[in-house]
User: Fold this.
Amino acid sequence: MSKKILSRKGPDKTNLIPVHMVLIIMGVLCAGAFLLVLGSSFQSEKEIQQFGYSIIPRDFSLEAYKMVFTFPEMIFDAYFVTFITTVIGTVLGVFLSASAGYVISRSDYRYNRILTLYIFFTMLFSGGLVPNYILMTQWLGLKNSIWSLILPNIVHAWYIMLMKGFFKAIPEAMMESARIDGASELRIFLKIVLPVSTPVLATVALFYVLGYWNEWFLSLMYIDDQKLIKLQYLLMQILKKTQFMNSEAADAMTASGMPATEIPTLNVRMATCVVAVAPLLVVFPFVQKYFVKGVTVGSVKE
Amino acid sequence: MKSIKKLIMTISAAAMLAAAVAGCGPAKEADEIPTLTWYMPKSIENMSSQQLVEDEVNKIFEKEVGARIKLNLIDNASWVEKMNVVINSGEEFDLVFADWGNATSVRVNAEKGTYMDIKDLVEKYGQDIKAKADPRAWQFMTFNDQLLAVPSQGKYVTEIGWTFKKDLAEKYNFDYKSVKEPKDLEPYFDTLLANEPGIIPCLGISFPPPEKAYTDVVGIPGVMFDEEQEKYIKYYDIPEYREEARLKHEWYKKGYIPADALTLNNAETYRTGKVAVMKDAGAITEDGSKSSASYGFPCADIRVGVKNTVNGDTFRGGQAVSITSKHPEKAVQVLNLIWKDPYISNTLAYGIEDVDYVYESGKGTDNPTVIPKEGSERTWALWHNYIGPLFDQWDSSWNSTEALQKMQEMNNNLTISKQSTLVFDTSSIKAEIAALSEVRKASQKVFANGAMPDFDSYMAEYENKLADAGIDKVIDELNRQYREYKAAK
Amino acid sequence: MKIIKNKISLGIRNEITHFKKNWQLTAIAIPAIIMIFIFNYLPLYGLIIPFKNYIPRLGIAGSEWVGLQNFEFLIKTGTIWDAVFNTLAYNLVFLFVGVMIEVCVALMLYELSKKAVKVYQTAMLVPYFLSWVVVAYVLNTLLDKQHGILNNIITFFGGSEIMWYNEPKYWPVIIILSYLWKQVGYGAIVYLASLSGLDSAYFEAAKIYGATKLQQIRYISLPLIRPVITIMLILGIGKIMKGDFGLFYNVTMDSPLLYPTTDVIDTYVYRSLMNVSDLGMSSTTGFVQSVVGFILVITTNHIVNKIDPSNALF
Assistant:
């Protein structure tokens, strides 16, 4: 099969130069921003103030990282929490959305419209922060629990709809033949549908990973325990604080005799950003193979 | 089937875990000693000494009060967002820092019924608080005859100060000490513009307040109270403020205020050392020590004015007991002990000896001097005026006895606004206030920096927007309520 | 008789298989249905908050009904309509231009080798990881008055500095580019994945008949991923009233002079309610945004249903 794909593109290679050109420009524009962040995290604060951010620091300085890692336990705790929530959330989330997405993708399923609407409705309407907070802390008692960082985002209507769109492309015939063999629906789903859907599953898994990794608001709402804070929340605290220091509220506090608070320096902000984002960027290319050019549906049929 | 089973198992595990977590509550309550939950804003990010600090003060609280405290620390920038949710959800907690703003402020929460009336409890258990807290402050914590919070000590007047970057002032022989009003700065700015291309002459400074007394109307933007005429008026109907806005625009056009002032973060720009005249760093000191420490280079401060007439809000920082608290009497006892024993309040503020601070002198006495850790080394800091007894503060780089005495002196000389105990019923003008708030917020930065394309047309447009938002209705309503209030008095 | 009997028994058997099938399918979806119920439907009682004068001590149910009073503030001033217009206009552009570019990128990536895809896709996904606050810093290095790269270029060619953050007229372009820049890499994943799911036999056949690349795209790729595109568009329309606060607040550095072209509903309401911490009023905005989104989605879906039912959402 892989041979076929290769042969399909073989002769067209020469036409791809403009495509590469466009993509190189886009890629450089996109990656440039991160390189800027990365570069300036190695600048000294003085240098940033004098010359602004730069991709290549004039004087390579570890000042910012030393600052970020003054208390390494804090960062490692945060990494651990981020990692664990991402893994658990992704595994459970992918399975749940695949199951729901599959069921509503079946046009012969009787309640398909109503169930789709049931799921879709949650995309537009939410009860708001306060009812959610009451649910999580008072009804489920999940305050300061790692589950409070996982469960609220575990089923996501958007991902279910995505799954549905993909599953729709699976030829009915595949399921039909299994049904004739007397396989149960669950068996069909697990043994036939899921195996041919790796690109979809991998894609949605990727979305879950990105979502859980970047998520910080749940930490703000449900976590008071410093040990359960996520990396992105640490970053957000630093970034929000800088803005806050420029606000009227901060003025009011300073005016009331509060000692001045130091603002995180520019390079520390950048370094924290790198620390929060880098692991995923490093890992990303390695897992990419699972969803780029995965098994095609057609090939299974052969 | 296997996966489904697994899934069900995982979910039930989650449910069990949830039950277990929820189950912790009652188990703890069976314990003799209750734990009081206390919401506090974090002063710094890294508060890793929390357990040590709690253990240290809990030793005393357990013995003296029979209770423990557990601090829930929220970062400053998220405080409003988070506390709004916590309060609106009716969560069970015991103590909370009642701020001057609008998330946990006593004024806003009086209407919501968030805080418990602790009048009798303070009478019974709070004698040490009563001895130290400013006697004038209690009335502002009292709504409908209910005492809703214990008022913190603090700086109750607003000083307006200008901070000069010392090396520049000295380089150009500028006699900053003789500066009295904004006009006095202009020659200096011209010199700077001519000779120092990289330097911003001024950024983010306020002008001296008008001679006559005007006070803010708490929670209602764009309106001021005229103390002499005893009526509410529009902010820019006060000639001094209009003049300030106009002069700032002139400065902006001349380049005294930088062209990109609207997007500069003042606090951050100050630290770059590129601004010649800045806003003071929260306290005006003879030697500029506070601003030098805050901005990171030698500075000199001058005081250009004091807003001596204050409304009730300046007194309203403090500690409140939640209506959902199960142990209000313990909560008040804990507060009282904090006010009574400077060791406790200073431990809550500075942290633990050797971990967060060391003694410089006077260890074991009532007034030691300590050296708190600085910068990234710091693992604990809570501001004294958040906790309550500010004037029990041990000397340190944060504050000196001398500075605190000066603060007290100023407090003693203040005048309280005539409208200060009036609590507005805003139910009929809620939508207008929200609209005013939008208009004010959208233009505030522009006025503060004079950064409009054209002053007259911008002002006219601003006033039109205020009129559309219903400012006249709001002012009429405020005046009506004031007349009633005065008559009732 | 026998035939009829057979028919009946067949019918019954059909019913039974029907039930069996539906039941089995429902069972598969049950865990998700339950989770959605707990975490999405239980909190929905909050939707009545906009109609209440909410007092925490009384709870949501116990607070007093006030009818439409909370909605009043939304229409109190004329200025919100500018924000509404901006929100709609930006979201429409984001939606249609976004989808177009994302599909193009996916089509281009589909032609490349795995290695090349890896490099490009990783690079294009980078912006997705940078929060808007960080993006704002990055953009500031371009637009800063003194050190900004753009102004350096302009002055180099003899032009005069532009005060980017004071000039609303440039911002529709800047905002749209920022959005696309951050979103395209992420959005393209969906289309690339659905292209990867296509049967390669189609392309084989097309090649045998001598179809060019463009013809293949026009007659095979696009029609085959049309369902996914349609779903994405319908879903996008539901969010058309919601402005991305992070983008419009941070990237503009909240510069008030830019409001005429950058103010959206969410930033507007944020300013309005800064001094008024009122749960009833803040829930109202979300409610209106949701209702409008819902109506638009139902309408769009209805139209799609008329044209091609297989592409509709439900």
Notes: Residues 1-11, 293-302 of chain A have pLDDT under 50 and may be disordered. Residues 72-105 of chain A form the longest helix (34 residues). The domain at 68-301 of chain A is CATH 1.10.3720.10 (MetI-like fold). Chain A has two domains: 17-61, 68-301.
